[in-house]
Design brief:
It is built from nine helices and four strands, in the order βαβαββααααααα. With 208 residues, the protein is of the alpha+beta class. It has a four-stranded mixed sheet with strand order 2-1-3-4, with helices on one face. The structure holds glutathione.
Length: 208
Amino acid sequence: MIELFYSNTPNGKKISIMLEEINFDYKITKVDLSNGEQFKSDFRKISPLSKIPAIIDHKNNVSLFQSGAILIYLAELSGKFYDSDNKLLINQWLMAQMGDIGPMLGQHHQFHHYNPGKSTFGEERYFNIAKRIYKDLEEHLASSNFLAGKKYSIADISTFPWIARHEWHDIGLKKYKNLSKWYELISERPAVIKGFDCLKSGEKIPKI
Ligand SMILES: N[C@@H](CCC(=O)N[C@@H](CS)C(=O)NCC(=O)O)C(=O)O
């Protein structure tokens, strides 16, 4: 049994989608970020930077924080979505999501979606970076079905929930044909649909 410390954000969804994909038994413990629950001392014991997602694997008595590390752990445990002969490429795209795609789109959410009008500099900077991410992914996916080659991997699982916020990005996902195709293909996976709505509130994956 895996306990997932979760809040309904792209970083949280990466792990609920992965758990559905590998069909592991899991339960969700909600962490209310707006109420500061991430700063509680019990939670900080497993997530020292006070961030979701985190997991406890009760069977193996292991806890982990940082979504990339959690995805690698679950992939190795299940033997899925992290092929041993393709780890170098998967690692690069997973780290690209962790270090660039997620943090930069996250800043774009802050300036463009949550706080428009507060900083022209911030809005322009992260809008431009977000557009560049779309363009770079579009170019890459012209010659690759999935981010790390021919097969769906944890790199795709980590990136998908960020692109699923495309309405907030205001960039026009449909103009990016290869990225749209990748997005639609992943959107149709039953485990992705289930993991996206892991709180069972009827949340649907945004259509293009
Ligand atoms: N690099 C981290 C980022 C996690 C992260 O930024 N989590 C946010 C929610 S999406 C959070 O818990 N924020 C609460 C806070 O910083 O106080 C990961 O991939 O796990």
